[in-house]
């Protein structure tokens, strides 16, 4: 990763994987409408989201790219990053927390209400992430690439390269989880 463009391409590739995951989660939500709650899928989905979609992807954005934008691009970045992207990251975490809470309740009660809440929170997450990835790909990333100073772009790229190399050292769990989830 020698350029910010390569860094952005990598983040966009992660978005593609996350969006395929979202399609799969939507399919599992449709199954709920037919009476089937695939508890194991949703448990593994929560692990995938927390460790990879949020724990790796969002973490790289927050700790590296967004941090550089906030430090260098003034009020516009403040509005876009703090008022938009970081808020959406937190919203996604909230949906996942509620999904997990209702999945646990469902295991005890099997009630229609807990099914509804599983469906609602899973689909809220899906729709949020679809919209979120589009905003980042079409607006946030190009804004960063166009406006960050060259030395900052280089620093972001170097930090991202190190982080990605660390992540690739231990990818076996992720690969296994992707197979289990069918993505």
TrEMBL record:
Cellular component terms per the entry's GO annotation? plasma membrane
Specify one Pfam family. Answer: Hemerythrin
Checking InterPro entries in the record gives: Hemerythrin-like
Instruction: Tell me where in this chain the Hemerythrin-like domain is found.
Output: 8-144
PANTHER family listed in its UniProt record: BLL2471 PROTEIN-RELATED, HEMERYTHRIN-LIKE DOMAIN-CONTAINING PROTEIN
Name of this protein: Hemerythrin
**What species is given as this protein's source?**
Peptoniphilus porci
């Amino acid at each position: 990763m020698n350029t910010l463009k390569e860094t952005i391409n990598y983040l966009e590739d992660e978005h593609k994987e996350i969006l395929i995951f979202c399609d799969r989660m939507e399919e599992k939500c449709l199954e709920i409408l037919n009476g089937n709650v695939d508890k194991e899928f949703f448990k593994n989905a929560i692990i995938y989201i927390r460790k990879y979609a949020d724990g790796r992807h969002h973490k790289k954005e927050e700790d590296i790219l967004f941090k550089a934008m906030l430090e260098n691009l003034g009020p516009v970045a403040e509005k876009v990053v703090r008022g938009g992207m970081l808020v959406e990251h937190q919203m996604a975490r909230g949906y996942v927390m509620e999904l997990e809470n209702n999945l646990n309740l469902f295991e005890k009660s099997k009630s229609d209400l807990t099914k509804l809440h599983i469906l609602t929170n899973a689909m809220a997450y899906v729709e949020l992430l679809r919209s979120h990835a589009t905003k980042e790909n079409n607006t946030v990333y190009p804004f960063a690439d166009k406006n960050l100073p060259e030395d900052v772009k280089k620093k972001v790229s170097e930090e991202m390269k190190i982080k990605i190399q660390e992540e690739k050292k231990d990818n076996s769990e992720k690969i296994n989880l992707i197979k289990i989830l069918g993505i």
